C-alpha cells in the first residue's frame, strides 16, 4: 500500500464533511444531533446507518460496517485504500505526494478511467453538433437543444476508428479505451480493436456524483436500414459492457439529475427508455429516472431507495409493457419500500403520454397508481373470468405463482402483505384461505428449488471488478421444458402457437422462463424471436444457455436408417407432455385441497372441489391429438 504522511490524511479528512459526502450517496434523515440512513452494505429495511458529525464517523448498528470517510468510500465504491485516497484527495483539493516506488495499484486508477469517459462524452457531443443526420433525429424525437445540453447527448459516427484516432491524439491508448468499454477486441485475437458504438445517438450515464461511468447508444434509423439491407441485425439500443466502473444492474439513467426533485416531491418515477426520461424532464417532471434496457433487480431497488422513500413504476400500455409489469411484481412485493405501479393506456409509452397530455396529467395518474398486490389482483381479474370456477382457479394460481417467486431473503417483509392478499383472494374467488395458503407453500418450494443459490452475491463482492457468473448446466434443467425452448429458438415461427398454450409460469426452471418471456415479448412487439434478437436481451449465463440450445448446423451423424425427428413432430410431443404434466399437477392440487377442506364447515366449497376433480379427471389430454393443431 502506498505510504502517505499522517498530515496528508488529516488534511483530506478535515476538508471533507462526512454528512455531505454520504448525503451524495444516500437519503439522510436528521435524528437529534446525528443522521440516519438505510445502510447500503446489507439489505437494510430500517435505517441502521448512523452518522456522527462530531466524530466525523459512520456506523451501521445492524451489519457492523463503520469508520471514517475513507472507510465509507472504500466500501461503497468497492475500491482499495489507495484509490479511495485519490478520490477523496481530488474532492478535497489536496495534492498527494508521490508514494514509495512499487506501491501503486495495478492498472489505471478509477479516476483516470472516469476522465477517459468524460473526454469521450465531450467528443461525442462535438460530433453531434456537426452531424445534420443525428440532429434531425434528435429534433424528430422532440428533444430540445436545452435537453441535449442537460443530458450531454452526443453522436458516435459510423466509423471503425473515429474515436480511436482522436483518443490517440489525447494520449489515450486502445487498452485504456477497452477498459472502459468504448472499443472491443476480437475474442482471443491481438488484432485491431473495433469501436463499440457506431452510428448511434449517445446517452452518457452518470452516477449520483455526476461522474460519467458508461454510455447507452441508439442506432440511427438510416444506419439501421443500411445494415438491414446487408442482412445484418444490430441491437436498437446498446449499453457499455460490464467494466470496473459500469455495472448495468446498479445504474439508473439521470439519477443525478432527478435526485433533487425526487427529494422535494417525495417520489421518483421509473420508466424504461432514455427518451422517456428526457421527455419527462422537458415537461417539468424532473423526478423521473430510467432503467438501462434491463429488468429491474435488487440493486435497482437499493439505488431507488437512495433517492426517496416512494417509487412509482411506470410501464408502457402494450403487451411487452404489461409483461414487464408482471415480472416487476415479484421483485417489489417483498421489498420494504413504498411502491406504486402505473400502466399507461394501450399503445402509449411515457414519452408519448407526456408529450401529448402534459406533466399535470401524468401527476394525476401517479396519484391513482396502486400497490403491487392490488395491481396483481387487478391483472388477474383482467386475464381470467372470475365468475367461472376454472377462471377463478387460474387467477388464484397466477397470483400465487407471483408471490411464490419473491426471493426468500425478502419474504420476511411480505408476511403481512401475503396474509392480506390471501384474505382478499379468498373473498374474491370464493376459495378457502387455508387452501390458498397451502398452495402458496407448494409453489414456494418449487421456486426455491429452481432459484439460483447465490442470488445477489455478485453485486456484493467488494474489491472485485467483475463478479464471476455461474454457468447453467443443461443437464440440471427439466428435460421437457428444455426441449420446448430448444424448438422455439431453432424455429421462431412456432411462437404464435405457444403463447396461448404455454404460460411462462408453467416452466419449472428460471433460466428457461427468462428465455421464453423474452420470446413472448418480441412476439408482442411484432417481430420474430430469432436467436439473434433474443440473445441481445439476455445476460450471461442465460445467453450462453440459449446458445447451447441451438441445433448444430451440421448435426452429428446418426446410425444408418435412423433419421432425426422433424421439429414439428418434436413440438407435438413436447406440448403433449406439458399438457399431461399440467393435468397431473391439477389433479394432485385438487386432491390435496379436498383433504385440507373441512366438508362440514365448508360444504359448498367441498362439493365444488369434488365436481371440479371429477371434471378434470374425465378430461385427460390425448397424447396423440393434444398438440396436432
What share of the residues does DSSP label as strand, in percent? 5-15%
Q: What is the percent of helical residues?
A: 40-55%
Termini Cα gap: 69 Å
Total number of helical segments?
27
Structural class by helix and strand composition: alpha+beta
Q: Strand sequence of the main sheet, in spatial order?
A: 1-2-3-4-5
Taking all Cα atoms into account, the compactness measure Rg is 27 Å
How does CATH name the architecture of the domain at 110-246? Answer: Alpha-Beta Complex
Mean pLDDT: 80
Provide the CATH topology of the domain at 110-246.
DNA primase DNAg catalytic core, N-terminal domain
Shape: globular
**Low-pLDDT runs:** 100-106, 451-470, 552-556
Q: Can you tell me the CATH superfamily of the domain at 110-246?
A: DNA primase, catalytic core, N-terminal domain
Give a quick account of the main beta sheet: strands, pairing sense, barrel closure: 5 strands, antiparallel
Please characterize this protein's 3D structure.
- This protein is α+β, with helices and mostly antiparallel strands and 629 residues long.
- Among the domains are: 6-92, DNA Primase, Chain A (Alpha-Beta Complex); 110-246, DNA primase DNAg catalytic core, N-terminal domain, CATH 3.90.980; 253-369, 3-Layer(aba) Sandwich (Dna Topoisomerase Vi A Subunit, Chain: A, domain 2); 391-450.
- A hairpin with a 5-residue loop joins strand 9 and strand 10.
- The longest helix has 30 residues, at 567-596.
- The chain is globular and about 80 Å long.
- It starts with 5 loop residues before the first helix and ends in a 12-residue tail after the last helix.
- Mean pLDDT is 80; it is low at 100-106, 451-470 and 552-556.
Amino acid at each position: 500500500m502506498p505510504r502517505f504522511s499522517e498530515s496528508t490524511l488529516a488534511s483530506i479528512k478535515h476538508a471533507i464533511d462526512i454528512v455531505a459526502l454520504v448525503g451524495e450517496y444516500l437519503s439522510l434523515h436528521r435524528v437529534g444531533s446525528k443522521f440516519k440512513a438505510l445502510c447500503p452494505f446489507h439489505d437494510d429495511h430500517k435505517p441502521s446507518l448512523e452518522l456522527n458529525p462530531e466524530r466525523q464517523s459512520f456506523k451501521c448498528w445492524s451489519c457492523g460496517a463503520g469508520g471514517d470517510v475513507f472507510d465509507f468510500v472504500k466500501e461503497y465504491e468497492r475500491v482499495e485504500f489507495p484509490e479511495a485516497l485519490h478520490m477523496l484527495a481530488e474532492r478535497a483539493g489536496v495534492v498527494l505526494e508521490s508514494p514509495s516506488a512499487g506501491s501503486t495499484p495495478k492498472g489505471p486508477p478509477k479516476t483516470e478511467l472516469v476522465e477517459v469517459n468524460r473526454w469521450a462524452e465531450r467528443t461525442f457531443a462535438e460530433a453531434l453538433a456537426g452531424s445534420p443526420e443525428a440532429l434531425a433525429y434528435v429534433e424528430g424525437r422532440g428533444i430540445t437543444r436545452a435537453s441535449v445540453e442537460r443530458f450531454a447527448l452526443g453522436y458516435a459516427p459510423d466509423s471503425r476508428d473515429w474515436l480511436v484516432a482522436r483518443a490517440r491524439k489525447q494520449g489515450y491508448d486502445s487498452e485504456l479505451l477497452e477498459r472502459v468499454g468504448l472499443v472491443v477486441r476480437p475474442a482471443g485475437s491481438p488484432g485491431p480493436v473495433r469501436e463499440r458504438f457506431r452510428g448511434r445517438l449517445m446517452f452518457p450515464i452518470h452516477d449520483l456524483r455526476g461522474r460519467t461511468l458508461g454510455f447507452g447508444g441508439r442506432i440511427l434509423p438510416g444506419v439501421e436500414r443500411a445494415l438491414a439491407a446487408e442482412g445484418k441485425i444490430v441491437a436498437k439500443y446498446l449499453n457499455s459492457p460490464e467494466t470496473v466502473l459500469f455495472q448495468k444492474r446498479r445504474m439508473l439513467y439521470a439519477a443525478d439529475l432527478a435526485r433533487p426533485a425526487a427529494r422535494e416531491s417525495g417520489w421518483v418515477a421509473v420508466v424504461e427508455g432514455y427518451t422517456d426520461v428526457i421527455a419527462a424532464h422537458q415537461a417539468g417532471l424532473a423526478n423521473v429516472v430510467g432503467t438501462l434496457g434491463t429488468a429491474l433487480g435488487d440493486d435497482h431497488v437499493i439505488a431507488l431507495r437512495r433517492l426517496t422513500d416512494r417509487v412509482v413504476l411506470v410501464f408502457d400500455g402494450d403487451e411487452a409493457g404489461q409483461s414487464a409489469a408482471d415480472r416487476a411484481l415479484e421483485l417489489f412485493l417483498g421489498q420494504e419500500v413504498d411502491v406504486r405501479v402505473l400502466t399507461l393506456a394501450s399503445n402509449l409509452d411515457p414519452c408519448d403520454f407526456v408529450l401529448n397530455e402534459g406533466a399535470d396529467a401524468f401527476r394525476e395518474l401517479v396519484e391513482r397508481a396502486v400497490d403491487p398486490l392490488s395491481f396483481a389482483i387487478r391483472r388477474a381479474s383482467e386475464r381470467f373470468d372470475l365468475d367461472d370456477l376454472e377462471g377463478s382457479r387460474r387467477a388464484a394460481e397466477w397470483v400465487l405463482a407471483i408471490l411464490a417467486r419473491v426471493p426468500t431473503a425478502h419474504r420476511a417483509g411480505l408476511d403481512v402483505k401475503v396474509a392480506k392478499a390471501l384474505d382478499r383472494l379468498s373473498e374474491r374467488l370464493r376459495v378457502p384461505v387455508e387452501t390458498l395458503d397451502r398452495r402458496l407453500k407448494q409453489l414456494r418450494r418449487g421456486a426455491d428449488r429452481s432459484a439460483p443459490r447465490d442470488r445477489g452475491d455478485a453485486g456484493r463482492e467488494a474489491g472485485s471488478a467483475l463478479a464471476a457468473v455461474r454457468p447453467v448446466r443443461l443437464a440440471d434443467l427439466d428435460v421437457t421444458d428444455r426441449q420446448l425452448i430448444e424448438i422455439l429458438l431453432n424455429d421462431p415461427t412456432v411462437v404464435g402457437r405457444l403463447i396461448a398454450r404455454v404460460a411462462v409460469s408453467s416452466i419449472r426452471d428460471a433460466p428457461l422462463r427468462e428465455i421464453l418471456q423474452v420470446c413472448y415479448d418480441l412476439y408482442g412487439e411484432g417481430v420474430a424471436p430469432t436467436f439473434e434478437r433474443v440473445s441481445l436481451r439476455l445476460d450471461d449465463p442465460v445467453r450462453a444457455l440459449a446458445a447451447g440450445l441451438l441445433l448444430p448446423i451440421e448435426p452429428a451423424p446418426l446410425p444408418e436408417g435412423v433419421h432425426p425427428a422433424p421439429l414439428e413432430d418434436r413440438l407435438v410431443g413436447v406440448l403433449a407432455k406439458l399438457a399431461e404434466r399440467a393435468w397431473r399437477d391439477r389433479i394432485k392440487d385438487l386432491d390435496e385441497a379436498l383433504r385440507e377442506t373441512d366438508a362440514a364447515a365448508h360444504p359448498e366449497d367441498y362439493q365444488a372441489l369434488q365436481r371440479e376433480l371429477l371434471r378434470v379427471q374425465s378430461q385427460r389430454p390425448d397424447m396423440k391429438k393434444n398438440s396436432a393443431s
